[in-house]
Prior knowledge:
The chain folds into two domains: 1-110 and 257-355, Isopropylmalate Dehydrogenase; 118-252, Isopropylmalate Dehydrogenase. The chain is 41% helix and 17% strand. It has helices spanning 14-32, 45-51, 57-65, 87-97, 121-124, 159-174, 190-206, 217-226, 238-249, 290-302, 307-322, 340-350; strands at residues 2-10, 35-40, 68-73, 102-107, 129-134, 144-146, 151-153, 179-184, 211-216, 233-236, 261-263, 269-271.
Amino acid sequence: MKALIAVLPGDGIGPEVVGQGTRLLRAVAERFGHSFEMAEVPMGGVAIDLTGSPLPAETLALCQRSDAVLLGAVGGPKWDPPAKVRPEQGLLELRKALGLYANLRPVAPFPALYDASSLKPEVLRGVDLLVVRELTGGIYFGEKRRDEHQAFDACVYTVEEVVRVVRAAASLARTRRKRLTSVDKANVLETSRLWRAVTERVVREEFPDVELKHLLVDACAMHLIKRPVDFDVIVTENMFGDILTDEAAMLSGSIGMLPSASLGADRRGLYEPIHGSAPDIAGRGVANPYGTLLSVAMLLRHSLGLEQEARQVEAAVAASIEAGALTADLAPSGTRPMGTQEIGTAVLARLGERH
Ligand SMILES: NC(=O)C1=CN([C@@H]2O[C@H](COP(=O)(O)OP(=O)(O)OC[C@H]3O[C@@H](n4cnc5c(N)ncnc54)[C@H](O)[C@@H]3O)[C@@H](O)[C@H]2O)C=CC1
Ligand SMILES: CC(C)CC(=O)C(=O)O
Ligand SMILES: [Mg+2]
């Protein structure tokens, strides 16, 4: 098949991990007979430096006419406050402009990495959960104000915004173990009370075969560590999903492991690891690229409809991890950690093998 893929490396370790992602996409195209055109454009801090805007018009236009977007990460100390324009704002605008309201973040720890997690193997065994994070509403997108005395961030959700993400999450639960946990703070927040009521109604009326439970976000943070195997699909609002998935990443041993797919009404999606630009390790070639490589698998599956190729990528990643191809964030002490590029090579070597 032919596809146009917009590539937005961004800042910090973004270019390092995305470099392995595009290498993998080229290998998939070659081995499985596809034609992927990849167009790289500036986004985030590098785009501010080049154009004054974190999301230049040409970058957005390319994303809008692409079949999929692959992104690294944006941000870094160079653009931290008091800078007026922030790289992260460009990412929020991109998600909004593309209508990507459902952010899928799967967490399925690899057995070979149980030792890299601080949790016990018996807690991790069998964990396979999916967080569906609402991505274009809530406090990140509400009105913001600040003067010398106070600051204000509004959290707003409409019924329609809740309905569409709950439908997406419940539909996904249907393809899995049919268990949905909705996470909110309905004991305190009005937006959460709306969220809970709408979720109840949508699931009861449209997904009677899906079992729905509600959890308060603080308790959910605890249960994710105590009994992660009990979760199937979690649906939650923007900020709660952002925070809970950084926590859940530690089940897999490192934040560098988790991929994500941001989806909307059509097939075009944005794919990125869940981590940030990691300025503390940027430029050293040591960043873990697995979250990006697994995001490539999600891109192949959700935007290009290439399920077999997606599985091949996931199998190649699993085989590499099994063989001990690990970066410094995961490698056991006393073993030599591999660099970002070496991991990419290890995965390519296993692509297309019978697994
Ligand atoms: N989607 C995006 O573009 C995101 C951007 N950010 C931005 O990134 C910048 C740094 O944010 P932090 O809070 O430090 O979060 P971060 O996720 O960049 O880093 C947190 C810690 O995890 C480590 N880490 C992250 N990714 C890794 C990888 N692939 N391999 C090995 N170690 C990895 C880092 O070295 C650091 O110690 C900030 O400007 C923030 O706004 C943060 C989260 C998401
Ligand atoms: C700009 C931020 C909301 C990025 C982030 O932390 C995320 O999407 O995980
Ligand atoms: Mg985050």
